[in-house]
Amino acid sequence: MKKLINIPNIITFIRFLLSPVFIYFLIKQNTKLALSIVAINIIADGLDGFVARILKQETKFGRIFDLLTDAFFFLICLIGLTYYKYIELSITLIIILSGLIKSVSFIIRKNIVSSRWSKLSGLLLSILIICSLILPILYQIIKWPIVLYNILISLIRIYQAIIIRKL
User: Fold this and answer.
1) Is the pTM here over 0.85, yes or no?
2) Rounded distance, CA 16 to CA 32, Å?
3) Burial label, 77 (beta-carbon count in 10 A; 0-12, 13-18, 19+)
4) Which domains, from first to last, does the chain contain?
5) What is residue 28's DSSP assignment?
């Protein structure tokens, strides 16, 4: 059994701890620091997987922890941004629902592997969060395409899970 406490998982744990920090800066109306937390999360999200591959420290626990940390970060951000009226409730609910559908697909498949399309989904959600804070006009333009992309990816994932399970 590989070690659970390793450099990639420590990076992921730091990302996990940044979620409430984002909310703290949002409450304090410090948009710059809230944005810096999003930026750090984006960089660290790519870094933890890269470091895991380079150091040959990839584990099933690490993959699950990374996915849960992504979900937690986006959930916290979306709820906070909805509460403070940066993002509409409908957008947040649809994104949360699509995330739940993706989670169900992972459970059905019993395979925790994030595809490039899912990684793009996370990047697009980060862009949506950033735009909602500092570029509200751009946010209005990109919100529905990003939401629709998330729905599409979720439906593809659940379809694949059902088809693969039957094979």
Assistant:
1) yes
2) 20
3) buried
4) 7-166 (1.20.120.1760)
5) T
